[in-house]
């Protein structure tokens, strides 16, 4: 095996498929639909969900795949996507299943859920995968009106001491080349940064009506419902993984069976056997 010792920082996706199937079974929902992003993860999810649902006696009426990435030609992309998403919305609206399972990358789904046509759907019960917890935690609420009342799977979240102060200190001037940071800033403060080309956005007309950012905005001033820096999910999982390894190394160095000491280039290096670290981590 290339990686004989492998630890996850998030639960195995297989457990999520089983969890969705058990949830459907417990409520007696045996006729459902699936919306997923068109990538390896989405294709695997559709395949595994169908199998899990079938094991519990349920059936899948439809499964639609939506593109997960934006192509280089954004203008052509959006004209194609607009028609495709509206077609999917119409198909979902005309379906007889009352339960829809959403599976895909949260950031990709936001552009699809922004369509007002979703709000015209008859009442549906939505079940969202773990990735959607990112959307609710990150304050994308206005894109998710259609998902109000959704049953969503989520991993544990918790506070990370000191991390709040670091995040609150961020500003666009620190990361002028980061499109993600600039997008986040404009989204959170409902303004536009001077010098950016906003024509690349599908809703460019809306972006251009926003006032220019004043430069006095601070992350600390944002409401916690929009920018929660006190609770983290995926970040907390990575945080605990790093600390688990750090504690394991500390325990090894503090124990009687210390790692072997090797002299290299006139200095002392500790030769730590990975299998010994794994035993301590476990």
TrEMBL record:
Q: What keywords does the record list, in alphabetical order?
A: Membrane, Transmembrane, Transmembrane helix
Q: Which SUPFAM superfamilies match?
A: Periplasmic binding protein-like I
Give the protein name, as stated in the record.
Answer: Receptor ligand binding region domain-containing protein
Question: What does the organism's lineage look like at the top?
Answer: Eukaryota, Metazoa, Chordata, Craniata, Vertebrata
Q: Where in the cell is the protein located?
A: Membrane
Where does it primarily localize? membrane
Give the Receptor ligand binding region domain ranges.
2-260
Q: Which organism is it from?
A: Pleurodeles waltl
MF terms (GO), sorted A to Z: G protein-coupled receptor activity
Sorted alphabetically, the Gene Ontology cellular component annotations on this record are: plasma membrane
Is the Transmembrane helix keyword given for this protein?
A: yes
Q: Which domain of life is it from?
A: Eukaryota
């Amino acid at each position: 095996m290339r990686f004989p010792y492998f630890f996850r920082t998030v639960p195995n996706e297989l457990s999520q498929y089983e969890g969705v199937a058990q949830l459907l079974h417990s409520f007696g929902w045996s006729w459902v639909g699936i919306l997923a992003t068109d990538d390896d993860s989405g294709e695997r999810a559709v395949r595994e969900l169908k199998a899990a649902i079938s094991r519990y006696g349920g059936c899948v009426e439809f499964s639609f795949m939506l593109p997960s990435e934006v192509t280089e030609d954004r203008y052509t992309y959006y004209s194609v996507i607009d028609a495709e998403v509206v077609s999917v919305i119409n198909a979902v609206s005309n379906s007889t299943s009352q339960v829809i399972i959403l599976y895909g990358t949260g950031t990709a789904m936001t552009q699809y859920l922004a369509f007002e046509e979703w709000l015209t759907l008859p009442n549906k019960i939505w079940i969202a995968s773990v990735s959607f917890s990112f959307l609710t935690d990150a304050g994308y609420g206005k894109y998710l009106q259609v998902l109000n009342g959704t049953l969503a799977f989520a991993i544990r979240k918790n506070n990370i001491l000191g991390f709040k102060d670091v995040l609150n200190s961020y500003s666009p001037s620190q990361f002028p080349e980061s499109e993600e940071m600039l997008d986040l800033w404009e989204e959170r403060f409902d303004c536009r940064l001077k010098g950016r080309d906003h024509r690349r956005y599908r809703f460019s007309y809306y972006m251009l009506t926003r006032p220019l950012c004043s430069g006095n905005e601070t992350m600390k001033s944002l409401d916690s419902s929009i920018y929660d820096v006190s609770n983290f999910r995926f970040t907390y999982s990575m945080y605990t993984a790093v600390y688990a390894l750090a504690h394991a190394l500390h325990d090894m160095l503090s124990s009687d069976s210390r790692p072997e000491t090797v002299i290299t280039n006139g200095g002392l290096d500790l030769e730590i056997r990975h299998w010994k670290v794994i035993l301590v981590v476990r």
